[in-house]
Amino acid sequence: MNTRAAVLCAAAAVVAGTVTAVPAGASPSHPAAPAPASVSASAAKLAWKSCGIADRPALQCASLKVPLDHARPGGKQITLALSRVPHTAKTYQGPLLVNPGGPGGQGLSLAGFVASALPKAVAAQYDVIGFDPRGVGRSTPALNCRPGHFAPVRPDSVPLTEATERANLRRARSFAEACGKKYADVLPYIDTLDAVRDMDAIRAAVGAARLNYFGYSYGTYLGAVYAKLYPQRVRRLVLDSIVDPTGVWYDDNLTQDLAFNDRHRALMAWIAKYDKTYKLGADPEQVEKKWYAMRAALAKKPAGGKVGASELEDTFMPGGYYNGYWPHLAEAFAAYVNASNAAPLVEAYENFAAVDTAGDNGYSVYTAVQCRDSSWPGDWDEWRSDNWSVYAKAPFMTWNNAWYNAPCAFWPTRSLAPVNLLNGDLPPVLLFQATNDAATPFEGGATVHALLRGSSLVVEEGGQNHGITLSGNACLDKHLAAYLADGVVPRGSGEADAVCPAQPDPEPLASKVAQRSAHGSTLHGLLGFRG
User: Is 264 a catalytic site residue?
Assistant: First the structure.
């Protein structure tokens, strides 16, 4: 039995054992039951106004007021920022709500991208709608718990000394405390279930009986939870790069660490393949040793006063999301090692890892949602034991990822119970998953394929990236277009319903061979990282 077949069989076993009991320490509040089917009359009439830019002239924007607490529709209201590319064809298939993931990802720009990247005849049949989820971006209030939390240079992520561990724990605890002080009245309502109820409010506000939805990364979890709460309101559902709902969120992050380590080693092997260009060695293990030697040097003397050991991990982590970044990362690596030139490394950090105000906002919502959605260990000894165990196998991102999520050990709100996504009440659903995705490993796609009965799974065999449709793979995009145009899904008899070959690896920047498509680069810029 090959790896994917084993995963799919395991997923079936998971489904068979899925329960809805509330875990210890979790709150049964916010039950998975539909909110009212409509919003208020004043909210139901959206005032769309042109907000087009040079390459997206048709884009329109609006705002929608929704209850902070959907159980109290007459209580405090918050505002969601929306964007839209309206349909132009005579055949109208309704709203297509899109989401880039996160949690904490800004979604306004995604509508214009999706509308332009889909075949014109398909996009023209939909109102493609983007939105900033509650707490995010232009929605209000927009969370920013502790501005400058990621300002360099941070403590080394690997806690080899008690002092380093204490420093990282202080940062995590301070962030959680700052969130609790600034947003005590808001945090209990920043979670996936409330975001899903907002999605249904958007559906009602645009006057649609049913919703079409297209989500990437964490957006797949949003879509699957929406389908669980409102199965009768789902028309078409596309999930790309799929979260494993059985591991939200503590276990999923540990699984990520192993997958990101594999992707980092794939980058080292790619650099070794082009030794004539980068001169870092023709043996992947030799290249990897030089990378960790660079990390050790930066821990002692940060490059440009900005790039220490933790910032180096931040800089190279995006290469696990999208291999189109590999040539840029390799050039920075080579310049530092071979020429003692730190400038390209600092530039790579500023391009791929530096956190601005939007990033502070995204991280605030990320922690708010993940810490609220499910239970996290409250005993730091458990975190320490689990992460050292994973680190022994996967040193690249394990501790960096642990500290990124560590505020959840101190979070001021009670946790909810994860949603059981088992669902046999949906029309055909289309799933996309790459076999070597690091951020949402293949197991997630296999599990959701089993949970959403009647769904179709399209696998990108050998695919290494996170977010694979509308990124240059014509085979994948053909299945996406057929589904959105006519509701057609592939049906196969094997482990997947359809298999598409992966796109080739990138070439070094000096090569005359064309680099990744413009769509691929644009999409991954919109999806961001950590989602």
Answer: no
The C-alpha atoms of residue 179 and residue 187 are separated, in whole angstroms, by 8
The yes-or-no answer on residue 466 being catalytic is yes
| pLDDT at 142 (0 to 100) | 98
Quick one: tokens of 189? Answer: 């309502």
Q: Which of 349, 266, 258 is nearest to 309 (CA)?
A: 349
**Peptide bond before 238: cis, by omega within 30 degrees of 0?**
no
Kindly state the tokens that stand for 491.
Answer: 């049906």
CB-based contacts of 163, cutoff 8 Å, min separation 6: none
Active site residue: 139, 217, 310, 456, which one? 217
The CA angle 500-503-509, to the nearest 5 degrees, is 175
Give the residue ranges of DSSP H helices in 356-452.
Answer: 357-373, 380-391, 398-405, 442-451
Beta bridge partners of 431: 239, 457
521 tagged catalytic: no
Catalytic residue among 132, 437, 477, 497: 437
Distance separating alpha carbons of residues 25 and 22, to the nearest angstrom: 8
Q: Are 159 and 119 in contact (CB under 8 A)?
A: no
d(CA 137, CA 141): 9
What digits encode the pLDDT tens for the residues 28-54? 444 445 544 444 434 457 999 999 887
**What is the strand order of the sheet 60-67 is part of?**
49-50, 60-67, 77-85, 127-132, 95-99, 211-216, 234-240, 430-434, 456-461, 498-501
The residue type at 179: C
CB 311 within 8 A of CB 153: yes
Q: In whole angstroms, how large is the CA radius of gyration of the chain?
A: 22
Return the higher-pLDDT residue of 58 and 213: 213
- Within 10 A of 260 (CB to CB), how many other CB atoms are there? 25
Helix (H, G, I), strand (E, B) or coil at 434: strand
Residue 15 has pLDDT above 60, yes or no: no
Of 30, 70, 328, 466, the catalytic one is 466
For 337-388, how does the pLDDT look when each residue is reduced to its tens digit (9 = 90+)? 999 999 999 999 999 999 999 999 999 999 999 999 999 999 999 999 999 9
Q: Which helix H or strand E contains 240, and what residues bound it?
A: strand 234-240
